[in-house]
Amino acid sequence: MAWVMALTVKLHGAETWQYGPLSHAYHPVLDGGLKQEWFGPLAYHHQTDHGTQWAFNGLVSFLRDDRIDATEWDILYPLLSHERFGQEAGWKLLNLWSLNQGVGPEGTLQSRWSLFPFFFHDQAVGDQPAKTAWMPFYGTIGQRFLRDETQFFLWPLYVKTRKRDIITYNLLAPLLHWRKGDHLKGWQWLPLGSWETRMSHTRTFADGRVETIPGYRKKSLLWPLFQYQQLGLGSENPSTRSALIPFYRYEKSLTRTSWTFPWPLGVTHASDTQGNYREWGLPWPAVVWADGSGKTTRRLWPLGGVQITPTQRRAFLAWPLYRYTERQTPETTTSRHQILFHLYKHSETIQQNDPTSLSQRWSVWPLFIRQQGEDGSMKTQWPAPLESLFGDHETINRHYSGLWAIWRSAHDTKRGSHSYSFLWNTWRLDKTPEEKTMSLLFGLLRYKQSHQQPLWTLLGLPLNRLKDTP
């Protein structure tokens, strides 16, 4: 059916048309181009100057963006998807099966694929051999699980990992391991204890700069009951942390002191001399009282609370009934109001250098979502069961929105263009400064008014003759 859509677009060029319940074509107010919708909510094709997209709503969708040389296929999203960006491409099946291909640093084609969690394979690149792993039997895994490389035999019987310069050998991971690295060594035997140390040292860059790498010492006994750490050794602000669970937790540095008795649901006190900051919790984080030059907190969870920092503000009332967040950057201020998580949400972003540049979003799950762009454009959709949860999610909008979007409206305030659609264009109204068109029953009954006399048509036949206005 996709080729039928494309052929129809090619035959009609950039004109709009209505074929009764078969299809409806129009120029989208905000996205531009030509959009053709087939059989109400079942399928559509959208052609613009920079690409195309089409979908059998809920089943399969396609996107091509010529501006960035990218394509995307989605089948029963998020079940199966394919993405290509330039020379990089990948397939994904629910994050269980994946295949990725791309061009390596030396210009050679490389690929990696996996069937999680049973099989992993990375193609050989340059002088690097191929890496293959069959879980839990044996193999080598590259650049996964937060490690540069993982070798294993009868996982978890023997596991060797490498992360930068640190190599860890595990027996019955993670119970027993020993570790070595640049100025580092240590061991762990859970739950009996662990010991690890890294000496402070320097690193010289190619431009001659010298950087000091702080060291540390970490110990534990009957983990996690007793823990002792010395961090930032060799730096200007070393710190010490210790804990004897469930009796206490203690932390001290040159500028900060923090303790909890008992841990974790006891009295907590923290002080920062550098920021003149004091915090009390009883127990933390449910009840908190904090003051300082950079932070103020009042919290009595779940009744209410407020937290203020130079760049953020947070507040809640009868959590999770109402929540408010605000974040500031040098460029923007973003605020959000929420009632019962996603039941009601309102967010807005204002540019610091232009308070009139405002983007907003309102949603009531699952009823509707309304969005306002920085240029004043507005679009609304009823209902919005997924859109009100995930916001302006491109793939969800492309793949699913056409299924349930009973009401749609779009407004371009700069050009003075507006469009309204009810029941998949069963009734549709489009207005521009030059003309106004209305269609009913998928265009079987139409109305058009421009600089000439209004024209009514039924099944494509005029009901009144068009005459020039005097």
Taking the sheet with the most strands, its summary is:
43 strands, antiparallel
Determine the number of helices (DSSP H or I, runs of at least 4 residues).
4
Low-confidence runs: 1-14, 466-470
What number is the mean pLDDT?
89
Structural class: mainly beta
Percent of residues in β-strands: over 45%
Number of DSSP-assigned strands: 45
Cα-atom Rg, whole angstroms? 31 Å
Share of helix among residues?
under 10%
| Principal-axes shape call | globular
Alpha-carbon distance between the termini? Answer: 47 Å
Can you walk me through this structure?
The two termini are 47 Å apart. The chain contains 4 helices and 45 strands. 5% of the residues lie in helices and 56% in strands. A hairpin with a 3-residue loop joins strand 8 (88-93) and strand 9 (97-103). It is mainly β and 470 residues long. The radius of gyration is 31 Å and the shape is globular. Mean pLDDT is 89; it is low at 1-14 and 466-470. It has a 43-stranded antiparallel sheet. A two-stranded antiparallel ribbon has the order 20-21.
Sum this structure up briefly.
By secondary structure, the protein is mainly beta. A hairpin with a 3-residue loop joins β24 (239-244) and β25 (248-253).
Q: What topology does this entry show?
A:
Layout: H1 2-12, E1 23-26, E2 34-38, E3 43-48, E4 51-56, E5 60-65, E6 70-75, E7 80-85, E8 88-93, E9 97-103, E10 109-115, E11 119-122, E12 131-134, E13 138-144, E14 147-153, E15 158-163, E16 166-171, E17 176-181, E18 184-189, E19 193-198, E20 201-204, E21 210-213, E22 215-221, E23 226-233, E24 239-244, E25 248-253, E26 256-261, E27 267-272, E28 277-281, E29 287-291, E30 296-300, E31 304-308, E32 312-317, E33 322-328, E34 332-339, E35 344-351, E36 354-364, E37 368-372, E38 378-382, H2 387-390, H3 394-399, H4 401-404, E39 407-412, E40 417-422, E41 427-431, E42 436-440, E43 445-449, E44 455-458, E45 461-462
Antiparallel strand pairs: 1-2, 2-3, 3-4, 4-5, 5-6, 6-7, 7-8, 8-9, 9-10, 10-11, 11-12, 12-13, 13-14, 14-15, 15-16, 16-17, 17-18, 18-19, 19-22, 20-21, 22-23, 23-24, 24-25, 25-26, 26-27, 27-28, 28-29, 29-30, 30-31, 31-32, 32-33, 33-34, 34-35, 35-36, 36-37, 37-38, 38-39, 39-40, 40-41, 41-42, ...
